[in-house]
Request: fold
Amino acid sequence: MNSSTISGLSTDHSPVRGATIKSDRELEAMREAGRIVALAVRQMVRNLEPGVTTAELNHIGEGEIRKLGARPAFLGLYGFPATVCISLNEEIVHGIPGERIVEDGDLVSFDCGAIVNGMYSDHAVTAIAGKETKKKRALVETTKVSLDRAIQAAQPRNRVGDVSNAVESYVRPKGYELVREYVGHGIGHSLHEPPQVPNYGMAGRGHILMPGMVIAIEPMVNAGGWQTEVLKDKWTVVTADRSLSAHFEHTVAITEYGPEVLTAL
Reply:
């Protein structure tokens, strides 16, 4: 989950103070929260098929989180009414699960988090239900690879701009655009902490990444323009031109030895 509106964070990517350094005990709790949310997302993707409703997928995700001993991070946060943000096709983020039926070929983005001992995780994946097209597969793969590149840039004593630029320099030459109003973020005792982590920007700029920091990196890539719109439910964010969008996210700890992905299985 990520929004410059609901989190109270702007998209200014100048240096930010207030990032917290996690203790070994806090990092261990975040590893467990990350493992649990990754298992929950994997279970939802396994059950993704034409004919399933987004409410059913949300129920699967919440059940997995609770079964494994964690609490849902999104449920009730800022008033959000579900455990999982499930966004389809032109929806970018914050889709509310309900009776909507997934259709063959739909792009479906799952975004959710878990809490263990007061520490948060955040994870997102986009998958294709049923038959896929080259256009949709290319969008998904570009978004996923951009996240991988951003993670590799999250080295100790690099800057946030290095992470941001790793996404932008890969995505935009391929003809896609990056959402600007919604950004990645620090994470730990709460879902949204400093610093902000935009998916665009200049290398060498922004907050220094120090060992012990944890950030959520989450490229949101549009097949059309970067502009967005919020629907009447006041949650669901869509592309303004109704082009397709994909979203991937990992919770990443900065260590002396390099980035550690806490939401990988």
About this structure: The chain has one domain: 24-256. Residues 24-46 form the longest helix (23 residues).
